[in-house]
């Protein structure tokens, strides 16, 4: 009997009165549904079993069996990470499904109203749950731009919200991680206790233990104003110029948020403002005035089903943006029909780095300058192949001397050296934390 089969047999005896908790290929309807949860079909790899955990006690019992048997496992909240094996497993592995750990509670600091209030939230929440709940309380938090993304991976991978310069990243604002360690102990990691683990979890990924609860900073409700426009790619020069100008304007006005996505036949430009204002905020009018506006719309990118991403970070440079555009046009000409390769320019400002530090900081080691975190994404039908690659941007940026070391975990391909990009000192801190909190290397 393999370690995984032994673990599954023991898990069934752990939950004798709840047969639906352990789902395996013999579970007629549940099994196909459990396999097909991840956002990208590349991760629809049938696992030996899926275990649905709804309490920390159940999770602890399950983890003990996993550890004792040495079974291969993965943790899943929403399955939004498109890297195979991150929150999925094959027939040799068990997936621990923790989406039901979705409690939400507002903790008020010394009864002083919203000042210093904290949202105590389970890792299985989606941002949609959290936003909706907080909005009812007149509050907001730094979460994903796609509300279906989950807290678990988003916050441990850094977490870029719509307004990076306002309060920094999601990880910056985590006040406490409650963590289930491999040895079964449940500990808190914060600015006073287990500070090394606290630091490591702020963007250092999920391989230290299972986070069972996050305490995150909340802010007064952000009133968002936004345009989502589709422009013609032929206007690339003006779009890139406007993007650069808005990125510079963001250093002066941290309420601005943007993304520029070069896609198959259109450029989707999202311009956001974290307030209601009658006239367009400075900088954003550049997007509104682009001559190539096709329509104001939310683009539909659901045409294909298999997806992958990768990332690189650079300084802001109109010349680089034009180099990348030209290289992308050439690559697109070589793609088989049905394959969509697209890229997005995302801003992280000096103001955002400072705001993040002020809010608590993280372990990701990116420099304090206005910069661009690129996402290169590929979507392809079943018989296609993955053509996403950030290497071209990297070498173009190198040639222009605007390449930065940092790689954003949440948009990285599994094979990219994300943790090494945080710098030697931070790598050492993460290794020390892993050795201390997970000495047997269970995670
Ligand atoms: C459509 C889309 C939009 C996105 N938008 C944004 C965005 O705006 N900003 C941004 O920063 N990122 C964004 N992302 C990236 C996203 O944040 C990452 O893919 C993230 O890993 C997803 O986390 P999850 O918990 O939802 O997914 P999962 O795939 O379930 O988990 C991701 C990883 O975290 C681990 N993990 C999850 N929970 C825990 C836990 N409690 N303890 C330990 N490990 C855990 C899993 O094992 C896995 O390795 C987006 C992704 C998609 C697909």
UniProtKB/TrEMBL annotation:
<keyword id="KW-0560">Oxidoreductase</keyword>
<feature type="domain" description="FAD-binding PCMH-type">
    <location>
        <begin position="43"/>
        <end position="221"/>
    </location>
</feature>
<keyword id="KW-0285">Flavoprotein</keyword>
<dbReference type="InterPro" id="IPR006094">
    <property type="entry name" value="Oxid_FAD_bind_N"/>
</dbReference>
<dbReference type="InterPro" id="IPR016169">
    <property type="entry name" value="FAD-bd_PCMH_sub2"/>
</dbReference>
<dbReference type="InterPro" id="IPR050416">
    <property type="entry name" value="FAD-linked_Oxidoreductase"/>
</dbReference>
<dbReference type="InterPro" id="IPR036318">
    <property type="entry name" value="FAD-bd_PCMH-like_sf"/>
</dbReference>
<keyword id="KW-0274">FAD</keyword>
<protein>
    <submittedName>
        <fullName>6-hydroxy-D-nicotine oxidase</fullName>
    </submittedName>
</protein>
<dbReference type="InterPro" id="IPR016166">
    <property type="entry name" value="FAD-bd_PCMH"/>
</dbReference>
<dbReference type="Pfam" id="PF01565">
    <property type="entry name" value="FAD_binding_4"/>
</dbReference>
<comment type="similarity">
    <text>Belongs to the oxygen-dependent FAD-linked oxidoreductase family.</text>
</comment>
């Amino acid at each position: 009997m393999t370690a995984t089969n032994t673990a599954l047999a023991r898990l069934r005896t752990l939950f004798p009165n709840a047969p639906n908790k352990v789902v395996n290929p013999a579970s007629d309807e549940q099994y196909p549904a459990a396999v097909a949860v991840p956002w990208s079909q590349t991760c629809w790899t049938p696992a030996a079993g899926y275990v649905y955990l709804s309490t920390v006690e159940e999770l602890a019992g399950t983890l003990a069996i996993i550890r004792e048997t040495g079974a291969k496992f993965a943790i899943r909240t929403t399955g939004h990470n498109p890297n195979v094996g991150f929150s999925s497993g094959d027939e040799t592995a068990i997936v621990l499904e923790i989406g039901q750990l979705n409690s939400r509670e507002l903790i008020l600091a010394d009864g002083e109203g919203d000042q210093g209030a904290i949202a105590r939230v389970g890792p299985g929440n989606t941002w949609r749950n959290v936003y909706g709940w907080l909005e009812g309380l007149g509050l907001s938090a730094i979460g994903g731009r796609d509300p279906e993304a989950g807290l678990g991976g988003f916050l441990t991978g850094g977490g870029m919200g719509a307004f990076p310069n306002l309060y920094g990243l999601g990880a910056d604002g985590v006040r406490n991680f409650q963590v289930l360690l491999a040895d079964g102990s449940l500990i808190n990691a914060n600015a006073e206790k287990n500070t090394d683990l606290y630091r490591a979890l702020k963007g250092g990924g999920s391989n230290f233990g299972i986070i069972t609860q996050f305490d995150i900073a909340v802010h007064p409700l952000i009133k968002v104003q936004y345009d989502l426009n589709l422009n013609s790619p032929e206007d690339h020069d003006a779009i890139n110029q406007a993007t650069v100008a808005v990125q510079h304007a963001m250093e002066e006005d941290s309420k601005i948020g943007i993304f520029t996505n070069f896609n198959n036949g259109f450029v989707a430009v999202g311009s956001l403002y974290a307030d209601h204002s009658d006239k367009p905020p400075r900088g954003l009018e550049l997007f509104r005035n682009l001559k190539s506006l096709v329509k104001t719309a939310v683009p539909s990118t659901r045409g294909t089903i298999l997806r992958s991403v990768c990332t690189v970070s650079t300084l802001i440079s109109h010349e680089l943006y034009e180099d990348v555009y030209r290289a992308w046009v050439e690559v697109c000409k070589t793609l088989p029909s049905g394959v969509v390769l697209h890229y997005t320019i995302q801003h992280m400002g000096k103001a955002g780095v400072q705001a993040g530090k002020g809010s608590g900081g993280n372990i990701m080691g990116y420099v304090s300058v206005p910069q661009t975190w690129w996402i290169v994404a590929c979507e392809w039908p079943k018989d296609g192949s993955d053509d996403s690659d950030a290497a071209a941007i990297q070498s173009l940026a190198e040639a222009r001397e605007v390449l930065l070391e940092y790689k954003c975990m949440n948009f990285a391909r599994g094979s990219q050296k994300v943790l090494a990009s945080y710098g030697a000192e931070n790598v050492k801190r993460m290794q020390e934390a892993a050795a201390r909190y997970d000495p047997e290397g269970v995670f």
